[in-house]
Amino acid sequence: MTEIFGFPVVVVLGQLVLGLVNGSFYAILSLGLAVIFGLMRVVNFAHGAFYALGAVTALLGLKLLGVNYWAALVLAPLVVGLLGILVERLLLRRLAGLDPLYGLLLTFGIALAIEGTLQQLFGSSGESYPVPEALRGALNLGFMILPRYRAWVIVASLAVCFGTWFVIERTRLGATLRAATENAPLLQAFGVNVPLLVALTYGGGVALAALAGVLAAPVILVNGTMGSSIVIVVFAVVVIGGMGSILGAIVSGLLLGLAEGLTKVVYPEASNIVVFVIMALVLVLRPAGLFGRE
Predict the structure, then answer these.
(1) How far apart are the C-alpha atoms of 96 and 169, rounded to whole Å?
(2) Could you read off the pLDDT of 214-230 as tens digits, one per residue?
(3) What backbone torsions phi and psi does residue 96 show, to the nearest 5 degrees?
């Protein structure tokens, strides 16, 4: 049997595919962080809480209103995005022009408030979200049996990530957003409603986190603290890709997911820290990140 690094190729390829699933979640979550930081210069520590809120909203919609998975993919990010707009208008806007540390502390407080509220209302044990009927079963890839739902997660995440990249980098709306990061007062002088643009940007960024939560709901147990652990990894992904870099967030998320999968084959004990080791190396060699600007 052909081997890679002394391990059967079937095992290595299987772990790489599973790593790509994790990388898909990292990519879509870090994309939302990058969009928010790129325009607002806010390190959104509440991102993990909005991720959990998206999953909880989908679960409540199913249990209380009968909202199916496909509708939840649209409605949950919309609801969480509207909440994000309220947070920006009522809280974050008051910190405009102050040291970014204040924004970090405020979003950290928001994260604690959201997670505490969800944990108080729904407990910490978690509930499972059923896999939609159309995505049940598995695909035989020859070297592994891949659940259809995990294959869907990869495809959907890639479509959302590169769709967002196209909008920001190749459309007039994206050009307006980039102009707002460079010179907001000048853009305001040309008649663009920059405060509204900022609010919509924050709402869109947290809606991406909520979408990731809906995608993750059938894979992991849904609970109020499900975002606590993953958000630390996602921040590392954003730092590696370059703060505010859209392409960096996407590529780094996918590559780090693959790195995790490969590490689980070669040295499983290090799979939980490999992302942070890579982050430390990148910060030493290129402090701005792989795709960031000095």
Answers:
(1) 25
(2) 999 999 889 888 988 88
(3) -60, 130
CATH-assigned architecture of domain 3-285: Orthogonal Bundle (1.10)
* Cα dihedral value 157, 145, 265, 2, nearest 10: -120
Dist CA 222 CA 234 (whole Å): 19
Matching residue, tokens 């059938």: 218
d(CA 109, CA 276): 24
Other CB atoms closer than 10 Å to residue 119's CB: what's the count? Answer: 14
The rounded distance, in Å, linking the Cα atoms of 245 and 281 is 19
Question: 2 and 142 in contact (C-beta within 8 Å)?
Answer: no
User: How far is Cα 259 from Cα 249, in angstroms, rounded to an integer?
Assistant: 15
Burial environment of residue 122 by CB neighbours within 10 A (0 to 12, 13 to 18, 19 or more): middle
CA dihedral in degrees (143, 147, 152, 155; nearest 10)?
-20
What's the CA gap between 207 and 164, in Å, rounded? 12
Alpha-carbon distance 260 to 31, whole Å? 19
Q: Which residue in 2, 5, 1 sits closest to 264, CA to CA?
A: 5
- Contact by Cβ (8 Å): 111, 43: no
What are the domain boundaries of the chain?
3-285
pLDDT at 139: 86
Question: At 6, is the pLDDT very low, low, confident or very high (cuts 50, 70, 90)?
Answer: low
Average pLDDT over residues 166-190: 84
